[in-house]
Amino acid sequence: MDFQHWPPVYDEHYFPAPSQRYWFPHIETMDPAERETLILRKLQAIVRWAWEHSPFYRQKWEGAGVHPDHLRTLDDLHRFPVVTKAELRREQAEHPPFGRYLCVDRSEIIRIHGTSGTTGKPTVFAIGRDDWRRIANAHARIMWGMGLRPTDTIFIASFFSLYLGSWGVLVGGERLQATCFPFGAGVPGQTAMAVRWLREMRPTAFYSTPSYALHLAEVAAEEQIDPRDFGFRLMFFSGEPGAGIPATKRKIEEIFGARCVDSGSMAEMTPWMSNAECAFRHGMHLWQDLVYCEVCDPQTFEPVPFGREGTPVYTHLERTSQPMIRLLSGDLTRWVNEPCECGRTYPRLPYGIYGRIDDMFIVRGENIYPSAIEDTLRPMEGFGGEFQIIIDREKAMDKLVIRVEYSEEWAQQAKITPGTLDQLQDQMAKRLRSVIGVWPVIKLEPPGTLPRTEFKARRVVDNRQLYEALVEPSS
Amino acid sequence: MDFQHWPPVYDEHYFPAPSQRYWFPHIETMDPAERETLILRKLQAIVRWAWEHSPFYRQKWEGAGVHPDHLRTLDDLHRFPVVTKAELRREQAEHPPFGRYLCVDRSEIIRIHGTSGTTGKPTVFAIGRDDWRRIANAHARIMWGMGLRPTDTIFIASFFSLYLGSWGVLVGGERLQATCFPFGAGVPGQTAMAVRWLREMRPTAFYSTPSYALHLAEVAAEEQIDPRDFGFRLMFFSGEPGAGIPATKRKIEEIFGARCVDSGSMAEMTPWMSNAECAFRHGMHLWQDLVYCEVCDPQTFEPVPFGREGTPVYTHLERTSQPMIRLLSGDLTRWVNEPCECGRTYPRLPYGIYGRIDDMFIVRGENIYPSAIEDTLRPMEGFGGEFQIIIDREKAMDKLVIRVEYSEEWAQQAKITPGTLDQLQDQMAKRLRSVIGVWPVIKLEPPGTLPRTEFKARRVVDNRQLYEALVEPSS
Q: Is residue A162 within 8 angstroms of chain B, CB to CB?
């Protein structure tokens, strides 16, 4: 790679020795201060690129009184206003289909993807030819860090369509020279077919969302197949938290007998794997020279010190087609800058992404994250793996109902009677009360009652309609 | 491209002038006799490759008393025995997972795909790194011949999973430098979403199976959208006949106001587009220097003269990973060698692929054998031993109905009620879905209801009239 040139052009013939821990040893282990010089140079280049090619950014920045010349140090970056997803949707509605932040000629676009449009109008992603190669090289490098090697066969069990997760793994796996088995997901009956293929082909690596992996294990169990028989060595995930939540990580590792690695930022940020654990899995590294991440105060959007909690704000350093400069994730995490066992000198998110600054919900004044509820229930005896949160308002008082499936195993051991159900419900409510600060009403249900998602788990039903008029951040 | 070297290596930087009709003018328009020399050289190379790398082929050929040295002219090829799909399945069952016709090192494999396993055990496809590039170059060249150009945006509306159709279009479209929008298909609700995206993005080109295009038009109509408003210029198809049948072609062209182009051979033969129409669409050309096709007598497997009907027997000329040498398609077609308006000097299939020499049938792009249905039902409790397959077309979508007799024994044990019938029907449908890849409608009937045959059971009733509007050839 030529570090002087921007946008960077990767040597497609480069390949590390298989015994080598790092794809690019120098960059991955360099002194953080030295890396900051590299990052700043790339940052200055992409900000200028956007200023010159995007009326959207220029207008936004002029309105905020900032100019590329103001970016003299990394610390200057927070003077540039954050971009929200709502803003991107609005921009694309006004300037269809790509918005005025498409910074390459249309002839350069080789791929179109998008969001599935759950919030009304979908967002369209256009990816340039050169960007696609940079994404491939970034993902290969990060997947190498997870421990993937050319000898691996990667079974990709997520939907190949608008969703970029599957495609990013595929193009990274190809660059890594692994064998890719892009099986997909989402079509009725496909999970049962996946079980058959997995048993037959025994791929060494597996990618999906964490909830899909748990679903797969259930389908395997229905066919009397132990998921350990698939023989996975490495499973890596994105698309929803889960794999970074200690209890879920442990559960996946136990069920499959494989190493569980967390990754993921946002589809808009592709290469989205710029947050990703290494093979030691002490929390996701921020691969800062690919995508620069600031963990920020959710009100001021200024970076918080290491050790503190905040929301990631991401900036592309290599994407020319639709560069995102300070895209607000709305996620919640805590970052640290302590050394990792792997030797990489990137900051880390030791607890992964564990909440949302917007889907976090408040019940009787308490901030509650579904992930906290999940983390509390997972290790409890009797918990069947699925739950749903329903928030109601009863006579002006918030009522938190958690529907929980009990496990088959528990049902067999403890005879199901109103008595045993009450007892387990009480235990769960008590345990949760101590974690979330609110007494929930637990409703135990038989296994298989709750709706399954093959994609992102949607577990919170808020009937109070409190958050309808979400305030846009005052950039 | 270096024509002296085998396996061929394509120049990835080569690109024809946009105004040029042909990708490789010289090869596509050369004197057929001259081309035969080229084909023979490639044929000799691949037969020797298989002999040296594949115990499967060597054993088979030794048994038939043939040797690569016997291949002195194209005419000698028919001395080599045909390969059947059943043979490949058997070989993979005995030598899992790839069979002894995998002719490259496992480290060369970059992709795994497969059939959906209609005959019980699926066939596994392993594609080598270099083959994948050759497939890309072959498809780009053929798609260029269809009239696709870098300015096109190709909406790919077929399932991205085992099925190679979608992937072949994608990798060809990428090499052609078109914009690819790999939308996929098959997930509940996805067609309605496709309608929204098509109206919004207005891609110029569209790929799917012909029946899916008709289904899409119906879904559009439900939303009061005229499919002509999508603005397609070019639609191209494979996966099932249809697009080559004059009446269906006309129907698609009228509904969408676009040019309808037929293509396709077999997944095993990827690059499968080696049968494909050009922009003039006078029937599929046989791109003989990529995949050599002989249209053969269904008994002797010797080529029939031009003008006659037979079954295509295919031979890879550039695939090193799993070379198919004389793979019997079992399809039915008629070939001619008359000049085409486009100026290419390849033979043609003026009526496309219009039938089968066996009882295999295709529903929603899945190859289905009655024997697979029988094998699945046989061990099931409640199955009475007789069944009948009825294929209908309902609103342009294939509908597979299977009338099944339940057993006397089951009728005695389980009281016959709507509930017990439903339950057994569900079980059978679910089991079959996982094997044949399509949801059937099961109709349970009392023992003795279905017609008996004394000789070969003729169990398939196809009401779709796929092949009906066939014009009798004049030659």
A: yes
